[in-house]
Every structure is written in structure tokens, then in C-alpha cells.
Design a protein that fits this description.
Layout: H1 5-8, H2 12-15, E1 22-24, E2 27-29, E3 33-41, E4 49-57, E5 60-69, H3 76-85, E6 95-101, H4 106-111, H5 136-147, E7 154-159, E8 165-167, E9 170-174, H6 179-192, E10 196-200, H7 213-218, E11 224-228, H8 237-253, E12 268-277, E13 282-286, E14 293-294, E15 299-304, E16 310-315, E17 320-326, E18 330-331, E19 336-344
Parallel strand pairs: 5-6, 5-7, 7-11, 9-10, 10-12
Antiparallel strand pairs: 1-2, 3-4, 4-6, 8-17, 9-11, 12-19, 13-15, 13-18, 14-17, 15-16, 17-19
Length: 345
Amino acid sequence: MIRNAAWLLGFTSLIFAQRADFRVGPVVAAPGKSASGVIPIAKGVDAGTEVPVTVVHGAQPGPVLALIAGNHGYEYTPILALQQLKPLLDPRAIRGTVILVHIANMPSFLGRTIYFSPVDNKNLNRVYPGNPNGTVSERIAHAITKEVIEKSDVALDLHCGDGNESLRPYVYQSVTGNKKLDDAMAELALAFGLEHIVLDRDRPTDPAKSLYCSTTATTRGKPALTVESGFMGLSDPKSVEAIVAGAQSTMRHLKMMDGAPLRVRNPVYLDPVKVIESPATGIFYPRVQKDQKVSEGELLAYVTDYHGNRIGEVKAPFAGIVLYIIGTPPIIKGQPAAFVGKPSR
């Protein structure tokens, strides 16, 4: 747990202002109350949309925690987890404020598309901090940056394996080189409760080119994690419950709720890690499963053309475990094919 509450709450201007109403876009919650509504994304160079949010504004001061689901609209477990979490949050008992972003990427959610928006063909989780005059994905990212991330003290970007990804649960813990920030994120990762922790050393450092949702927080000095729980766009209860429990554990860690956090006692750190891209466009044949141990050079998958001729192979860059493997036949050259991590304690 964070032992120095003064650092955790080193965001004093926000904390001592929390007895006032809290606003996210047009959604306003009084102390001890909850409010739900949408952040409107106005029509621009393409169609507009909206981002449904709930603000749970505690009666007592404390940190502001952002829980963001649906940056990828086909990733359903975090979306369902926030549906289940919302009625469990009593604003009269909470210290601080929780911002629930129920579905960040509504075009992708309604269009049932993996990775990319059906409107502008962009990956929302690669265009942060966004652009108010850009395409719809960029306008969404800008709104979430301004109305959610910049108003928060801590952020969790909640994901699962997209509709094509067979994935085992884990969290990404960024390593920035800022000891105070890194220590805080290390404690957050343990508190969330998933034992596999990817040490992510390659995220951007420029807040104007953060690309990722969680990195938008860390480049602004705010602790953040990316959580992965669920696979293949499914909504299995176990994966949903892991996110609900992890969010509550995080709140206990931040002293927003009474009780002790889950806190992983025997974490499996993964460092190094490697996303292996597909060498070709065609039909994908996985030869391993998620969570499987593999040796260096082991065949993870191969790709054929549309006539069945093998045109490419995906091999393990080092010995480790498979964090995810693509589980559906279509594959495009350069897109992720597998993710391997090397356990390190």
C-alpha cells in the first residue's frame, strides 16, 4: 500500500476543492451524490458521437480516480464491469471521486469493430491526447484527456483481449524513470490484484504525443495502469469480476474505501516483453495457446495465402509465456500476431 498518503494526495488543489460540485463535461455531481450523462463529441470533419460517463462524488475529500472502459469498443468485459461496479459505489461513504467512462469508443462499440473506429479507421488508443479539430477518434481522445484524465489523480485504462485476441490476464506497469511516479505505479499494480505484471519501458514521454490513454496520464505526472482481463471479445463472468474486484481493491489502496486491498503477494513480472507482428497478410494459424510456456525460436503461428500456401511464420523471440495470440483467421501484415513475456522476479 502507499504508506505516504501525503504523496498520494500530493494533488492538494484537487482534494481540498472536492467539497464543491464535481463536473465532467455537462455531468455535475454534488458531494455525496452520483450523476450520469454523456460528454458530447460534436460533429466535425466526420460524424459526432457521445461518451457515457458517471461521476460518483464522495461526501468526503480524497483522490479522483478515473476508470476508463471501451477505448477499444469490442472489448466488452471492462464495459460490463463498470456496469456492475456503479451500484456498488455509495457516494455517501466514498472519500474522493470516481469517474466512470462507460464506453470511450462508441462508434467501435456499436459497429462491433476491433482496434479501429468504423468512422475514421483510427485506433483510439493510439491518438491521445487527441485533437479537438481532428477526426472523431481524435476528438474523443481530446475530450477524455481534458474532461477525465486531467481532472483525475489516478487513472486505470481497462481492456481485455479484443475480438481477435486470445489473452491471459495481466496489467501493464509503466517504467518512466521518475522514481516517485514509478513507485506509485508499482504499488497500484500490486493492489489491483492480477499477478502477472508487464514492465512497460517503451511508452512515449511527450505529453503532446502520448498516443495511449494511460500514457496520457503518466506524461502528466499521474499514476496509471492499463489492465487486461478477458479474451476474444467475450464477456465471461470471471474476467468481468476480476475488473470489478480490482477497481474496488484500487479504491481501498487509495483510501477511498474502507478495508484492505487485494495486493498480489507473489507477482510474476514480465520483462522483457515483445509484440510480434504478422509477416504477411492472409489466414492465421496459431500453434500455441494463451499462457503457454514457449522456448526461444518456437513456432507460435504461421500465415498462409488464400490458397493455403504458407507465406510466413511467427516465432518466439525468447523463452517466456504467451500473453496473447491471435485466435481468428484474418491477419494483416504488420498487425500484432502474438505477445510474449519473459517471467522475472
